[in-house]
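Lecture notes, part 5. Sequence design as translation. It can be helpful to think of inverse folding as translation between two languages: the language of shapes and the language of residues. The source text, in structure tokens, appears below.
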């Protein structure tokens, strides 16, 4: 059993996929865990498993983060434990694939609320206590699609461009404070994501990294206080390619990858 840190890691999107694997890695490092998502049964099962395996404290907060005002409610639920939060991991998110004009308007707003507004508000809400502690880590899960326009995933790609830009800017602002921000940019990853997003019939859904590998690379980058990391060997050249190739060429190429194939 590892030594307990006596500090909380608050992980959103911890009920499955990348967020669940990040939570497991944080437990292995001795962090107590606040697990947030909507699926209470999955969170309870994970909390029980990790508490018994690692002797850590766990809190399950079943909460819909795609609703305006949800971050303020979440902070009320977290209560005074906020002072002991050392790590914030913003993983909760989803995509909406297909032609933009045919995408459900209500779901689009929920996606922007979750991927952008909630991530930004939660970062703003947790940051003062991290700064007061003099040390802390924030991980924001962006995506490899953040680097270029993404036809057939247009609004989703734009939410992740926000996450990358916001996180990198913040990491500069916070330099020297003991608090770091890391944007993690996974490529296509084997989780429920493509099914939820309706992108499971696209070419990229066939090229998937494991969720465990993405989580491990992300957590290592966060504790190394890197401002960003692109996970997966195939995706590493993306930032450089995007600097060399005209933006609309990239948009056209990526559009082919995200088009539904059957
Ligand atoms: N998989 C990929 O190919 C890929 C690639 C690049 C980036 N990403 C990003 O990685 C992050 C994690 O996705 P994933 O691949 O692990 O997908 P996933 O398996 O579908 O997990 C998404 C997580 O977000 C939670 N979530 C969704 N809607 C929520 C809501 N309204 N309120 C609270 N929690 C909510 C889900 O829990 P509940 O359903 O229980 O609420 C789940 O825990 C996302 O930000 C995604 O955009 C994924």
């Amino acid at each position: 059993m590892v030594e307990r840190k006596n500090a909380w890691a608050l992980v959103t999107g911890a009920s499955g996929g990348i967020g669940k694997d990040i939570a497991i890695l944080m437990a292995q490092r001795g962090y107590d865990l606040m697990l947030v998502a909507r699926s209470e049964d999955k969170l309870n099962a994970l909390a029980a498993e990790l508490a018994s395996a690692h002797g850590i404290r766990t809190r399950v907060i079943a909460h819909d983060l795609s609703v305006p005002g949800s971050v303020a409610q979440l902070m009320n639920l977290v209560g005074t434990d906020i002072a002991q939060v050392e790590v914030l991991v913003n993983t909760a998110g989803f995509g909406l694939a297909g032609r933009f004009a045919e995408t459900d308007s209500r779901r689009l707003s929920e996606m922007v609320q979750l991927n952008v507004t909630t991530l930004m508000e939660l970062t703003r809400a947790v940051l003062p206590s991290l700064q007061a502690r003099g040390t802390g880590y924030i991980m924001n899960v962006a995506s490899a699609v953040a680097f270029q326009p993404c036809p057939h995933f247009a609004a989703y790609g734009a939410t992740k461009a926000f996450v990358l830009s916001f996180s990198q800017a913040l990491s500069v602002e916070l330099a020297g404070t003991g608090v770091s921000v890391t944007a993690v940019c996974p490529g296509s990853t084997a989780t429920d994501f493509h099914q939820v997003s309706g992108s499971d019939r696209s070419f990229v859904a066939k090229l998937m990294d494991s969720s465990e590998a993405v989580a491990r690379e992300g957590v290592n980058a966060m504790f190394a206080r890197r401002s960003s990391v692109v996970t997966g060997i195939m995706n590493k050249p993306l930032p450089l390619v995007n600097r060399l190739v005209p933006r609309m060429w990239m948009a056209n190429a990526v559009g082919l990858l995200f088009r539904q194939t059957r």
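The translated text above is only one of many valid answers, since several sequences can fold into similar shapes. Strands lie at 8-12, 32-37, 58-62, 85-90, 136-141, 179-185, 228-230.
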